[in-house]
Amino acid sequence: MLTAIDLLNRKGRDVHSISPDATVFDALAVMAEKNIGALMVGEEGRFVGVFSERDYARKCVLCGKFSRETTVREIMSTSPVTITPETEIRACMSLMTQHQVRHLPVLDSGKLAGVLSIGDVVKCIIEDQDDSIGFLNRYIVGR
Ligand SMILES: NC(=O)c1ccc[n+]([C@@H]2O[C@H](COP(=O)([O-])OP(=O)(O)OC[C@H]3O[C@@H](n4cnc5c(N)ncnc54)[C@H](O)[C@@H]3O)[C@@H](O)[C@H]2O)c1
Question: pLDDT for 90-131, tens place per residue?
């Protein structure tokens, strides 16, 4: 069964992060530049939360706050769902569905070791199923 570490080995372990004291505007600019939907929030070398497009929409825009006057700390999610390198990919999908999150920080001994998005997980599951179907086809036709 594939795990988070297998997927990180395929996609890379880059982590895009931002300080909690940055403005929401600056965070959105980084997300646009990197073309991603969430940033990990780090303070003094510690992982302290996740800032997502959903946080922006629901806790900034809909609350009448301005992105240049609001800090990431004010609206980030401070108790994000996390996984470890050993978490199975199907368990990642279940966690995302259950908690309605699209990004899972991967913590290795408490340190941020990568990020998996819902797109990463779905792509991985589809590729895994394609491999299984290919194997079964070859088995059935005897090649
Ligand atoms: N996931 C979402 O929140 C969301 C919302 C609306 C549309 N979409 C669209 O769906 C498609 C797939 O999106 P997705 O689910 O892969 O999410 P995504 O666009 O946030 O992620 C794209 C890639 O960047 C990586 N990534 C994301 N945030 C990161 C971070 N902080 N540090 C390091 N790597 C990071 C992901 O692992 C993934 O490989 C994209 O075209 C996206 O525009 C996604």
Answer: 999 999 999 999 999 999 998 999 999 999 999 999 988 888
* Dihedral angle over CA of 93, 45, 19, 104, nearest 10: 0
Count other Cβ atoms within 10 Å, centred on residue 46.
Answer: 10
Residue nearest to atom 33 of ligand 1 (CA): 15
At 137, give phi and psi (nearest 5°). -60, -45
Q: Does 29 sit in the ligand 1 pocket, CB within 6 Å?
A: no
Rg, the chain, Cα only = 18
The Cα 16–Cα 95 span in angstroms is 21
Is the Cβ atom of 115 under 6 angstroms away from ligand 1?
A: yes
Q: What is the pTM of this model?
A: 0.91
- Structural contact between residues 114 and 137, judged by C-beta atoms closer than 8 angstroms: no
CB 7, CB 124: distance < 8 Å: yes
